[in-house]
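Team,

Forwarding the record for the chain on the shared tracking sheet. I've put the sequence and predicted structure together so nobody has to dig through attachments.
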Amino acid sequence: MKKFSYPLLLLAAAMMSSGTAWGAEEVVTDSGTTSWMLTSTALVLLMVPGLAMFYGGLVRTKNVIGTMMHSFAAMVIIGVLWPTLGYALSFGPGILGGFIGWDSKYFLLQGIDDTIMSTQIPEYVFAMFQGKFAIITPALIAGAFAERVNFKGYALFIALWSLIVYSPICHWVWAADGFLFNLGAMGAIDFAGGTVVHISSGVTALVAALYLGGRRGYPRNVMHPNNLVMTLMGAGLLWVGWFGFNAGSAIASNLATARALTVTQMAAAAGAFTWMVIEMVQHGKATSLGVASGILAGLVAITPAAGVVQPSGALALGALAAVFCYLAILLKNKLGYDDSLDAFGIHGVGGIVGALALTFFIRPSWMADAAAKVGGSWTVWQQFGVQATAVGVTIAYAAVVSLILLFVIEKTIGLRISEDEEMSGLDHSMHGEQGYGLINLN
């Protein structure tokens, strides 16, 4: 029987131990794997300023600093919360019936000072790698309500959201005793965060956009991006960082890492290519914003699938994501809700497409391993049911809890800025600064 191999199973085993058991062979650090994981951690962090540039270039001049601050605030706030509470809540042993994790040794990372995981990396490295996912996820949400939120309200929202929404979902999908991790023959497949990161943030973004309402003058007034050059540079940084995001999630430096990196590159290119073709057919020209959007759509879709699909599957997922994300943005324009920077249209829709469609492109050897694991047969449609369950649970939980958080914060310290503040722009009203030394009040 072929051994069932799935990188997260290694993590599961690692999270069940905190050192070397009596009489067991000592686990030593593998310098090659550790070096790659340190590099991957830095690459994922690079995505956050990349996201800041991507979002910052898409808003109006008077909001560029305020919008970029949303990403940097996530680096600061979640950067403190994650080692304090987030890691314990996400990867600690399950409590409250497995709803959330907790172990006091993970509080402030105080109990992992000497821990080498079974994957032969210091647990500090794994904790910091996962912390970068926790940082970028709430930052993605900010694209939905760009140009119209109070900074203090936003800061409180992402802090609470990270603990109450992100951490439980992370535990369900990635922790050893998470119910979605153990669902079916191989669990809900989410190699690098299609469900945990993109669906949770995308759905929250949609709820926030609907709850807060549109920007003043939307959709009557056209709101042009202030700097598409910066947006393209941001997309490029995101593409580079995504190699750490996906390939790093193998928690190894081996064949699985190479596969994940390869399909990440191919899906991003396929997404951008498909978006270009759609625009040229429909409008007769390809746009820089379209290319950037296609890149992200492809990257988002391959994220849950990077460990299980072959190159042909990566091309298909990238193309499918571009089509569905493009249609989602068209639908948004018809419905008239103001998801300012298409956080749901790209991340929510792309994540759903990737999480569900990956089922039809899984390596045959994986399906055989799954069948062997359950001692019988395991079909594509059974796995699709597992994927759909994970997607549905994530959508429902993120939507309901996020709506409650938005309501409470809006009714207490406030979240939506006043018309006068929106007129003057976030840069001036929230930070007392100007991005380019001039203000455009359009």
